[in-house]
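Researcher: Before we compare anything, I want clean individual predictions. No alignment, no superposition, just each chain on its own. First chain goes here; please echo the sequence and then give the structure tokens.
Model: Echoing the first chain and its structure:
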Amino acid sequence: MPTGNGWRFLAPGENQMTVPHPPANPIASFSAELRSLAADRTIGDLAGRTGLLTETVKLLLAGEQLFSWEVTSVFLDACDATPHQWRPRWERLAREKGRRVWSRKYDPVGAFPDPDSARSIDEFVDLMQKLRVHAGELTYQTLEDRAKVEHRRLPHTTVNAVMKKRTRPQPDLVEAFVEACGLPLPERRRWRMKWMELVAQGQGDHTATINGAQAQQTVPESPSPPIPIVSSSAPLAESASTADSAPDMPPPAPKRLIRRVVLGVSGAFLLLAGIGVGRLTAAEVVETPILGGPPYSLIQDQPLSLPYKLPMSRDWHLDLRLTLGHTPEGGLQNCTYYGQMLVRIERPGASPLEYKSLLGHRNLTLPRIPIGRTDSMRIVVTFKVVGRPTPALDGPCQLTLDLNGSTVRAGE
């Protein structure tokens, strides 16, 4: 019998086991079925069959987000399933999440190309072409259209010139290209870093050589369970066992996760992915990207401290680009309208440099900040609410901070 508060009394003969439960998170349920398909295959085995990183496979099976059809199809094929039989269900999930469902020429099967196998820039571009074909022979115009949905620029004319090796792409274009082919963040970062490594080796170190060191990361702080920690040799059946109950939660930003820097107890500086030691001379101008990767978590009134180790002690300039986003728990418009970013750049033995964004602006660009002669620096960002929001904010603002596009420059 129904009651006014939505509960009902058990009918005669019913018990708690026979009363229907609310439906589970559909994405978590979908991931659970993918795990059952994988049977006793290990994470490492699945990574080898799909050509994906073990990190990507773990995220796919965690049940917290719906991956692209390209990734899903390749995973199904690796589990000896028939992708087109799963396509209608994937499309329903995608539409429920407000995702664009693209038409396809065929369902991708077999392992994705491995960017780390490239030994030269030409070989890397050949692998980009293979990735485009593998994803369904996507036209250059389709790639551009897909990139626009993710708020990226990927002109089809530029892609055409790159594929014909008439020009070399910038790292951002490589990343946008890989994303348009359906690959998630860990894979995009992998392709971008390999490209920068090849450019550094093939152009006389006009960019610093990548050494692969990365700041430690944690999973996003959210109500959902953490991504299972599974070794690449462990059986899958013993890994992500809790994903079935993961709540249905929108992603914090398109195809992105939130990252936090974990500082070591010793206080040593963390090496940032993309910064390495190259052959630097006084006549060279070196532009070293700061790979923002996933956005950092930025909570109101809690300073976010980002320490960086530079390749060597010399004069540096910093081009800093900061963009605010939001987490599922915290809004963006109401917070940024009444708040601003306070930026402090610290260098050993020098006075700190301080900047702030305009009130109500979610972007801050600071070109050519003179860092001076140093081999390390620390960027501290704090978000402050300086007005009185109406309606009042429900708790502190929980935002994200994106550093993509920031670079450190050296040279004369």
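Researcher: Okay. Second chain, same rules.
Model: Second chain and its structure:
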Amino acid sequence: MAFISGIAVGARGAFVQGRANVRKQRANLRSQRRCVLKMNMDEAEDEAPSDTAVPTSADIDSSSGVNQSRSDLTTQLLEICAVTNRGQTASSEQKSIIEDIVASLEADNPNPAPVETDAIEGRWNLIYLSTPFYKANPLLASTASPFVEVGQVRQTISMETGELINEIDITAFPMLTGTVVTNGRLTPVGAERLEVALEKATIKGGSAFERFDLGALKLDIPVEEIYQRVRGTVPETFIDTYYLDDKIRISRGKGSNLFLFAKMM
């Protein structure tokens, strides 16, 4: 028994050390991004005409240690995400700018323990995803088809009930609309991570040709039960949140996929 206990303690220590190393690597990456952004802005200042307004070193080296105030950065983030179709049509330059802003915000997170704050609860609207929808969610594999378009993606988090709900509006050719709703159980793991165990998915009808109401159509898929039968495990994922305020949430999932959400009122 002592031998087994020693193995368990060793495994736990390795896990904690691994998490610490990941945090250190992320901190180094954020620092590097801020340095690159500062250099680019300094170069722009040197090359710009004297009558051109450009950020100065004073703007960059603010007392908070980030390039601009959180309010300015979140406003810029919302504006650029609004023209990228939630990241699906973002150019390389736009993605780079978004990553730089995200790095600056993550370095000045007003809620270092997002999972433990009330601000994480409520309804959130997805405004940016760094990867195609069908790669981020296996239930959206069908959206790889050119005949399927993803509309709004909403996420509801309730720490009180331990539940996460994703609502994804879909339009399929020819003009068939509907909503895919997934329900999952939330388990807090540390100050930044929420583990999610997927329970079920529901496909709700919308309309056909914007004339015929399909709201009565509803198909429940017991995802948890199917996974347990086929694979012997419950489908799980996680959400790591590295920035949270009353307007936006910056989270990452498996594969370091970046998710940006705006709070819905």
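Researcher: What stands out in the second chain?
Model: The radius of gyration is 21 Å. Additionally, Strands lie at 122-129, 148-158, 163-172, 176-189, 193-208, 212-213, 218-221, 236-244, 248-252, 258-263.
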